[in-house]
User: What shape does this take?
Amino acid sequence: MNFFLEGIYQTVGEHLPMWLMMLIAAVTGIAVVLGMVSLIAMFSVWLERKVSGHIQCRYGPMYVGWHGWLQSIADGVKLLLKEDMIPRDADRALFMLAPGLVLAAILGAFAAYPLSPGIWFGDIDLGVFMIIAFSSMTTIGVVMAGWASNSKWTIYGSMREAAQVVAYEIPLGISLLVPVMVAGTFNLREASALQADWFGMKWFLFTNPFMLPAFVLFFIAALAETKRAPFDLPEAESELVAGFMTEYSGIRWSFFFMEEYAAMFLMSALGAVFFLGGFESPLTHFAGEFFGRDLVVVGAGGAKELNFAAIPYHLVAAVTLIAKCFFGVFLMMWLRWTLPRVRIDQVMTMGYKYLTPLSLLCVLGAALWEAGKHALFAS
Amino acid sequence: MTRETQSTPAASTRVQRLGAGEVSVDIRTPDLEINFGPQHPATHGVMRILMRADGELVTGAQPHLGYLHRCAEKIGENVEWLQYLPYTDRYDYLASMNNNLGYSLAVEALLGVEIPRRATLIRIICAELNRIGSHLVAFGTYGLDIGAFTPFLYTFREREWMMALFEKICGARLTYSYIRIGGLFNDAPPGWFEEVSRFCDVFEQKWQEYVDLLLVNQIYVKRTANIGIISREMALDFGLTGTMVRGSGIDWDLRRDMPYMCYDEIWRSGAFKIPVARGEMGALGDCWDRSWVRVMEMIESIKIVRWCLDNMVEGPVIADIPKTLKVPLGEAYVGIENPRGELGHYVVSDGGKVSIRTRVRGPSFCNLAVLEDILPGSLVGDAIAIIGSTDIVVGETDR
Assistant: This one.
């Protein structure tokens, strides 16, 4: 949260020790992440209901608020007030820990998500790495939940989850390697900044012919990674009742739900930043031209100053990225409400036999293309 | 490990201690016994299947029935002939019209009454519309079993109209008791036939939607083709009927082969065909073939309805039979083509007001028997698909 840190430093910097300011910034960051994840989850739940409703020739929620926009809040209250049930033979400690772990992992992954070109939680150089690592940590929580519930259906669900994530982590990572290689950075913010040319339309997707297949592969792998249909085998409701979540109810159950939507958003964010231009769009470009881009400028005396005039640009950039993310989320929902579910052996076959080799081919092709480009045009 | 070594009990229990903390890896845990149901989203009611599974592989399955047993047949021997009719609604609640029809035909066979032509035609319209409704549920919920939620709501949209049509003709939406012994409860209201005709027109368009959205969807085909294969021999051995037997490539339909009412007349006029699976997407008799037969039958039913509408006559809709029915001494068995197969009613009368034996041959119950043979060897996900493809209605298996 450099912007906040700088802001605090500017206003009360002289009176506070450095560690306290760091603490304040950290607490602010955590609060913002928590709020963001909850908001994203609530909005996504509402969106999912609306999308599914309209796909299925019905309205979805209509009664709580305008077009049911308060429905998620009503549901949240309901879930909070529900009886907290733990099955008698469950492993109590693990059972209670699992949803927390799942949520904590996805919250951790959000640390690498840049809010705007100048506002971020942590400017992590291995941002992609961190997001993938944290989001695969949720698998541990899921397996834990399935095991702790002490039910056969949950074991099936968690084992499927483990197998599926292991199979799809590889193509996910490798297909993401293609734009990372072109960008030359793991940092989400920097990668986004690299796509600013052509009036904000020099998206990685358009710069290399191997990007499009890589994007498709990435999207499929992301679907599997986030347990979305047609890869929703861990919670396949017609097969496994509710998979690993069978024994959960109330707020613990909603943690899994929040994780799912936050993970969808994060995966879409990765896709948006590394294939679809991140913050960049013509709108962002012109906002940048008009309002200026730097939030923190070096003033006359060499001291850093806050440049509030650039805030509209950052707002536009932030909204651009969020819109792109929700476009991805919408695609996932669209697929979920259209396609049947694939079978577990088909999931495995697809992951190991097709996606992994294809993504490797994409990396090879993209690397050769870039090398060729350098050889031809660099000299 | 190969399957052979796994199945020998000696190998399964051999644990060799090698040294401190070292164990040779030849441990085999016993098969997992899973209670599939009675409360499970994919059992379509309260059926219980005791499954044994080795990981994702189903090694054994045994259906346990009786959770919905309501002594339907015994009730039939304790109430008057006409009073039993509403009970027939309740065993296969997705095809109540057909159930009414089956029982009525059996009793009428004993009575030997002449059914007015108009009643017969309206009966066929109702039975076929109900067949469409039943197949819509079967196909929609089958998509649900496979994981596709949306086609289910599309099919229910058309079924809703079908139920509205029935509501107009008899006032009920699910348990009609419309087809009575001797004819019908009452005549169709004005404008009803026109609406049925409109329904047929719209349905033909919507039907294409199901085919495009689900039936030929690649994931759907991959999920359903080549699993749950019932060969011709197996289908004959188990005495399967209806869509199950036609899904195995055997051309057998009671409407043509043991005609009742005026189905033979419709058949001879060439108005409808009987779809028989050809194994287009995989082996003959797989789950896809059965669902294909159902989807195709819907459109054939529409043709039969059209034929009846075109040949509709004026006249009474119920034969002249007394309120308190005394059925002549004798026994009768009438099997009709229910959406799920042969629904047979066997009734015995001693000449009194009450049947002395009522026996129902339920298609779901008979078709269910094949599950025990086709489930083992499939994956858990396939097991759901196979159970769904048999299209059982638990209310009828248990009665």
User: Anything to note?
Assistant: Chain B is about 50% helix and 15% strand. The interface with chain A takes residues 32, 34, 40-42, 55-56, 143-150, 153-154, 157, 213-214, 217, 219-220, 222-223, 379-382, 384 of chain B (CB under 8 Å). Chain B has two domains: 3-64, 72-398. The CA atoms of residues 282 and 297 of chain B lie 20 Å apart.
